[in-house]
Structure formats: C-alpha cells, structure tokens
Amino acid sequence: MAHPLVPPQPVIYLVEPFGGSVRRQNANMPHVFWDDAVVTRGDGIFETILVKDGRPVNLEKHLERFRRSAAQLDLPEPRGEQWRAATRDAVADYVREHGETEAACAWTMSRGRASTGVPTAWLTVRPPDPELARLRKKGVKAMTTGRGYSVDTGDGSAPWLALGAKTLNYTATMAALRWAREHGFDDIIYIDPATGRVLEGATSTVLVVKKGGRLRTPEAGPDVLPGTTIQAVFDHAAAQGWRCKAKPLYVDDLHSAQSVWLVSSVRRGVRVTHLDGTQLSTPDNEKEVAKLIDASLAAHPD
User: According to the model, what pLDDT value does residue 146 have?
Assistant: First the structure.
C-alpha cells in the first residue's frame, strides 16, 4: 500500500510492437533513448484510457482508434490480444500495489530510434490528475478560439497530415491552453473563426444538452477527432431514451443550450460554467447529465 502522502509510482510495461515480448519496466529507470522520434519529433500516437473500479473502460473503442492512428502514420498494427493482456496485467499490478482502483492508462507508440528504425511502444498506469476531480465539481470557464492554423478539408490534397489520428504532436494545443489559463480560463473550445462552427475542446469532445432530451456533438471530420467517450455516452444515453446526434454546431448553440460539457476518457464529464466571460445558466438536470456520463462509462468496461 502506498504512503498516503507519496504519489503512487506508475506501472510501466514495454510492448514489443511486432507481437513480441511484453515486460514490466522499473519506473525509476529510463526506457526511451535520446534519438527516439517521440523525443526529437513528437512522431507517434497515443491513447488514454480510464481505469474505473479496477478495470479499463472502453478498451475496444480505444484499440480501434489506436489501430486507425497506427495505419495512418504507417506504424505497426497494434495486436489486440497483446495490448489487452498488457493493459490488464498493468492495471492488476497497480491495483494490487497501491490499493487504488481508479487510474489513467496511457498507450504510446513511437516511430522509434533514428539509429535502428524500429518502433517503440509502452503503456503506463498512473494516478489520475487530481485537478480533474476538482473541475468535475466546480465546472470550467472556457474560451472559444480558432486553432491559429488551417486544417486540410479532407479532399486528399495533403494525405500525410493523417487527419483523424491521435498523434503525440500537441505542442500548439498545450501552448493554447497555457495562454488561456494565464488569462483566467480553465479550458478552450476550438471553433472555425470564419463560420463560428464548433470543433472540439483542446483535449476533449464537446457535448451539448438541449431541451427535449436531446444530446448533440459536433460531427467528426478532418478538424474534429472522433471521440471514444462520446461514442460510449451516445450508446448508453440512446438506450435510456435520449435523442443523440452528431451535427454541425455553432457558438450560438452553446449559449442557447441547457448545458455544455467537455467529455474525455479520464476527465469523464465537466460542465462549462462560463463561455468567453459569459456565465451560462445552471440547468435543473445538471446532476442527471453528470450521472448519465458516468453511467455510460460504467456500462462499457472491457
């Protein structure tokens, strides 16, 4: 059992990406070389998976997206049984050693070392960021902003952009978040500045709750990454009688909605309380929606 004042050590498993060995790595020993593309170029892919009640959540949806990302970046296809087994073993180690049943599990695959050309891959299980629990309670102040650059429209003119892949190149996103926080905001929602069309959060999917039991989210496309968590929410909510749809949304839709949420795997659901400095009304069904999001993840353990 970990000391209550000492953060639990992460559990790290190295995964041989061509279906070879899977072995545990000492968390205090380095496992990425100086010339690995993940360090020098940010060239790789990742997934972050919620561990809840000692079990990985939405594992198959994450594996499906991990495979798509690998194919788009010409990386080895992740072998399902290998990653499933490594994840379950790592989670079991974490729970046994730390007595904690909630965690964040991250999968990473890199282009690998320049000197060998062999991809590298690993997974970690670590404590969730405590800030996320605080934000779930108090909500977030968000600002809308353009990305600061154009995204290809998906007409095939720039296939190397690997649109729709969950890559490690988050430099611009992290810079945008730092700027927002320096100016009193907790998070950002990307929009198309020319049209006001809503895209996605910096590291989340936008969920809009409308009157009449309607849930809406921006359509996935070249500038909106398909979200695994929103898929789980829609699957579960539809079974509970909610009307769920992905469609074009605009900034006006955020202001007129019953509520606006940012959803992602480990964050789960966080309500947007202020948008661009304007306070959004508190809906009567806030607790109901929060429970719906949590229940949708509980309904999709793997």
Answer: 93
